[in-house]
Specification:
Blueprint (H helix, E strand, L loop, with lengths): L1 E5 L20 E3 L4 H5 L11 E3 L5 E2 L2 E5 L5 H19 L1
Antiparallel strand pairs: 1-5, 2-3, 3-4
The chain binds zinc ion (ZN).
């Protein structure tokens, strides 16, 4: 299955690049807040960062990668775990 994974490969190409996640982990794009819609390069980073499904940390760079053996059910399980972990952390 082809999915987005975090990568360090192009870190530094953009002034706002940051890699706090784990190289190669599954990532997801969250819905940007209102401030990020208006000012994508502003103070808030949610509109330009991927969230690591394992680390819950952000990275600005990701790549589409084939992950052998990964199934849709695996991805759904990872996403559910990510949502639960974020809820426990932030709510
Ligand atoms: Zn934001």
């Amino acid at each position: 299955m082809r999915v987005f994974v975090a990568t360090k490969a192009t870190q530094g190409a953009h002034v706002h690049d940051r890699m706090d996640g784990i190289d190669g982990e599954l990532v997801w794009l969250l819905e940007p807040c209102r401030a990020c819609w208006c000012y994508p390069d502003g103070r808030c980073t949610c509109g330009r960062m991927f969230s690591g499904l394992s680390s819950l940390r952000e990275t600005s760079t990701a790549v589409v990668s084939e992950v052998p053996g990964l199934t849709r059910e695996d991805l759904e399980r990872a996403m559910r775990g990510f949502v639960r972990a974020r809820r426990d952390l932030f709510c």
